Every structure is written in C-alpha cells, then in structure tokens.
Amino acid sequence: MATERPSTPLQQAVATHSGILPRSPLTPEQVKRIEINRLKAKAIRDQKEIEARKQNDPATLQRSSSNFAAGQKRAYSAISTSNIPASLRDGRGTEAGKPGGFRPLDEIQPARNFTKFVEYDFSKMTDTKGGFLTVEDDPHNKALHTPNADEKPAHMTLKEWERHQLLRSLREQKAGPFEPGLSVLKVEENKTCRECGSLEVDWKWEEIFGCAVCNACKEKIPEKYSLLTKTEAREDYLLTDPELKDDELLPHLERPNPHKSTWNNMMLYLRYQVEEYAFSKKWGSAEALDEEFTKRETEKKKRKEDKFKSKLHELKKRTRVEAYRRSRQAGSGGDFGDHIERGGKHTHVWGRTVENKDGIGVKSCVECGMNVEELEF
Fold it and tell me: pTM of the entire structure?
C-alpha cells in the first residue's frame, strides 16, 4: 500500500484587527515548482562533491564533510591535514606531525595589543607569603636584576668591595692613578696653580670651576677660594635663582646635603667667581651692591612697620567698639572705666593672657569681663 507524503496543512486566511489579510497560500503548481528546484540544487551539489573528490580538493571537502549521508565512507583526502591551505580558518587545521594530536589552542595567537605580557608557571614558583616574587622566580623583572652601585655584589669579597669603592672615589676626584699625566716634553702645556705655580692642581676643581689651584692655596686664601652655598650667594650678593642655575654663568659643585640625606644636593659656588660676577657684571661695584642691600633692608623694615601699624589700628578700633557696646548695655551716664553699680572708679583685674584663633593674645577682666588684645614687640 503506497504511503502518502505528509504535508503541512494550509493555513486559513484569517482577518486581522487592522483589516489586512495575510498572504495567500501557495498553489499546488507553486509547491511543485519549489520541490523540483530543490531536487535540482541537491543534484548539482552532489555532482560538485564527486568532482572535488576526484580532484582531491581539500577546501571543498572540508566544507562539505558534514553533508555525507549516514553510513557513507569518506575518502582519506577528506580527512587528511597535509594539504590544508593557510587561509583556511579551521581549528582542526594544525600540523599533522605535532605531538599530542590536534591542539587548536596551540595555533591561536593573541592580539597585537596583548602580546606584551609575561607568562609565569605558578606551580614552580616559591610562595613568599608576602605577595611578591623572588629574583629567581621573576627573571623578566629588570628592577630586580639591575645592579645597585651602593651594595656589595654577591661574587665580591669584602676586601675586593673596599678596593672597588676606593678606586671609584679616586676616579671621581681624579686623584691617585687617575690623575691626569704631566708631559716632560711640553712643559708649557702643563697646568699649574694660579697662585704659587705648583703642579699639584686640584683636577676636580679644574674640571668643574675651570680654576687651576692647589690644595695648599685653597686653605691659605679662604677669602678667595672658599665655597658658598646657594642661600649665601642669593642673600649676600643678591643673585637670582636663574643666575645660580646657569652652569655657564656660575659653575657649581654638588655635594650631599649634610642636614638630611633625602633633601636636594647642595650647590656650592666659588667665592671669587660669585664676587666677580656680582661686582663687575650685575651691580657694577661693591659700593653699588651695599647700596642695593641697604635699600632692600630699608624697604623690608618699612613694610614690617606698616604691617604693625595696621594691626595696631585694627586693635584700637575693636577696643573702641567694645567700649561703646558695653556703655550702651549699661545705660546712660558715666565714662569708660567707671564702675557702673557703685558709681566709683573701676580698676580692671586682668586674668591670664590666652591666644585666640588668629594667634593674638587676649586677656579678660575678672570683674567686668572686658577683653583686650595684646601685641608683643
């Protein structure tokens, strides 16, 4: 008995609320035409698969591998990975001879923005219980593997480290074996002390200040070759910060700050260079510098006196206002300072001076409660 092919029942045209009817159902002729076209397309696809299998085209086989009917055996070329093109975006397209079989994650590369990272194997790392990595476990950290010049290396003994420190100090000071050599053939080119003509020149000063002088002359003439700090040069010779920071104008020697090691280094200047610039170039003479210094001190004193007078004026104003307010509260009659109740002269009994929020001393009368501000001279 022939069985009929099941078909979906046709939908009845039902009017919607808007009054628009749905699309009319397909006619038997249209259904027949659609079925014929489907069978033709399936036959064309099967034909292409057969031709591709004969030509061993892996790309076509990979795309159509899921279209085989159940129980149909695929050819070896359909599952081989030897001829897979590089443009094929398929996780199965890995190297055939790679150990461990097909591992798609091995071929996946990170994006360009995420390639700068360090991969750690936490199973082989030491747990420091402090949330940091040790030098052995973190070989990629440049800060841990940068040698510190102030710490003794592990491969050096104590004597070798002391010798290394001594050589470094002599190299910085250009002393001992690092002192510039003297030529016997060209005596006129040898630098000598500008005071005594000695060949024992302080090469550190010669390099920084451009001044060839020996250590004996530096101690003998301190009024010329002593060192001035930046504060002394600014206050005594009235020089500005831009002038003191200019190495070509006033060269300076840097030393660690003796007050605190974490503060900025001291900037030391040669006295005769500072005086030569201040007297000849900036102010013209020592007398002109003294006049400028006296002028600034006078202006500074005047500003201080004006500030004191303004504070004293404000104090007197507040005192008069307070006296007027108390007289208004006590009623008419009497002068300021009179005892209101008994009619006699009131004598204030001041208490201890207390500073208010502005830092000014204030004392109050024990009997009348009057407040008076005090200024210390």
Answer: 0.42
